[in-house]
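In this supplementary section we document a worked example of the pipeline. Step one takes a protein sequence of length 114 as its only input; no multiple sequence alignment statistics are reported here. Step two produces a three-dimensional model, which step three serialises into structure tokens for compact storage. The input and output of this example are shown verbatim.
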Amino acid sequence: QVQLVESGGGLVQAGGSLRLSCAASGSTFGINAIGWYRQAPGKQRELVASISSAGRPNYADSVKGRFTISRDNAKNTVYLQMNSLKPEDTAIYYCNNYYIKLSWGQGTQVTVFS
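The serialised model returned by step three reads:
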């Protein structure tokens, strides 16, 4: 079974950048569409960006133009480049299969201060 592990979060000033990584184990990774999700305190988990197995991206309106999702199937990794970060981007970020969800991992904390 594929397992996904998130990393790359941190504390950053508004306007700054972070790059998150989602590393997967399992030989089926390359055929899976992957999503980056986030959950802010007191809010529901939301989809931030997704990428198809062919590399086609989609973004939530709130991050469009600021975030870029990409994948390297040879490295079994999906990335989320986050630029022009805002305090409202503060959340725990998770990755998961887009269609058939795996158990959620621990995520990686992103905190943006003004």
